[in-house]
Specification:
With 323 residues, the protein is an alpha/beta fold. It has three domains: 10-54, no CATH class; 68-159 and 285-312, Rossmann fold (3-Layer(aba) Sandwich); 161-283, Rossmann fold, CATH 3.40.50.2300. Helices cover 42% and strands 16% of the residues. The protein has twelve helices and twelve strands. The strands form two sheets. A six-stranded parallel beta sheet has the order 2-1-3-4-5-11, covered by helices on one side. Strands 7-6-8-9-10-12 form a six-stranded mixed beta sheet, sandwiched between helices. Helix 7 (132-138) links the parallel strand 3 (119-122) and strand 4 (143-146). Helix 6 packs parallel to helix 12 and helix 10 crosses helix 11 (240-252). Pfam families: LacI, Peripla_BP_3. This is DNA-binding transcriptional regulator, LacI/PurR family. Keywords: DNA-binding, Transcription, Transcription regulation. GO terms for molecular function: DNA-binding transcription factor activity; transcription cis-regulatory region binding.
């Protein structure tokens, strides 16, 4: 019995097309002019042999590149549960994929950042130190930081957390609310800025507690608070997923939203498990992802990139009403 057939190579294509190996390579790469007739002959030979083209990884390595951009997202399980994170990752992968680059998802405690990556995107809310940072700087790896620490040498992509939260707080104040609680994210730049915006209007706002952007975690957090006091007329959450958890727990206790309690969030993600539209601060999740990926591509090319702060917008839904 004969063994498996060998995969066709570029040399096989060159032989079949009657051209030199270098001419066949140029026909694929397009780096130098090759006549249309020669290119058509090479492409036809490749199709007949089932040759899909040169190995992009090998080509990138010859150019001193890996063809891969790393993105540190903290705990991978948490990132895949958060619709805001998924929307951004989708946009990043779309832009990088269109440029022929792969995306490597990394946790915040592994050594993947020490791989030969073309660039690294740091997107870990709540983590403001990273052992890999010094290594990346030493190797001159382009670094793009999303809503994170102001590290020297990195390009920073952010959103206007504070003004968005302040606009949301002003909306609640106009509705007559004075006793306001807040559910926050873990200590981080977004958490501090969103809370600062809230306190521009409600300096005495009560911190209910902090948790991940997770429905069950938010429900568990407010369960004890409702039992202890829970005398606020409105709860402002730092993510829509948290807000959904608060709405569900309030209803479980017979508290009507928004008649008895107003609840607001942040992000502008879809919450199909609720039968009402949340009042929230909408951030440009896909736009943030595209901007981040484009900054990484520019840094890979050696182009200087300015820091970016993207605008947000208040969206009034059905989850807030008069105090």
């Amino acid at each position: 019995m004969s063994g498996p057939s060998r995969a066709p190579t570029l040399a096989d294509v060159a032989t079949a097309a009657g051209v030199s190996l270098s001419t066949a390579s140029l026909a694929f790469s397009g780096n130098k002019p090759v006549s249309a007739a020669t290119r058509e002959r090479v492409v036809a030979a490749a199709a007949a042999l089932g040759y899909s083209g040169p190995n992009p990884l090998a080509r990138n390595l010859r150019q001193g590149r890996s063809g891969v951009v790393g993105i540190a997202v903290g705990q991978l399980s948490t990132a895949f549960r958060d619709p805001a994170a998924l929307a951004m990752l989708d946009a990043i992968s779309e832009v990088l994929g269109a440029s022929g680059l792969g995306l490597l998802l990394m946790s915040d405690d592994d050594d993947h950042a020490r791989l030969p990556l073309d660039a690294v995107i740091y997107d870990i809310c709540g983590r403001e130190t990273w052992a890999a940072y010094d290594d990346l700087v030493a190797r001159d790896v382009p670094l793009v930081v999303v809503e994170g620490p102001a590290w020297p040498g990195a390009t920073h992509i952010d959103i206007d957390h504070r003004s968005g939260s302040a606009a949301l707080a002003a909306h609640l104040h106009d509705l007559g609310h004075r006793r306001v609680g807040t559910v926050t994210l873990a200590a981080s730049h977004p958490q501090r800025e969103r809370e600062a915006g809230l306190r521009e209007v409600f300096p005495e706002a009560t911190v209910v507690g902090a948790c991940d952007s997770d429905v069950a975690a938010a429900q568990a957090l407010v369960t004890g608070w409702f039992a202890r006091s829970g005398d606020a007329t409105a709860i402002v959450c730092q993510s829509d997923v948290q807000a959904a958890g608060v709405v569900l727990e309030a209803r479980r206790r017979g508290i009507r939203v928004p008649e008895d309690l107003s609840v607001a969030g942040f992000d502008g993600v879809a919450t199909p498990w609720l039968d009402l539209e949340l009042t929230t601060v909408v951030q440009p999740l896909a736009g943030k992802g595209r901007t981040t990926a484009e900054a990484a591509l520019a840094r890979i090319r050696g182009t200087a990139v300015d820091d970016v702060v993207l605008p947000v917008e208040l969206r009034i839904g059905d989850s807030t009403g008069p105090a």
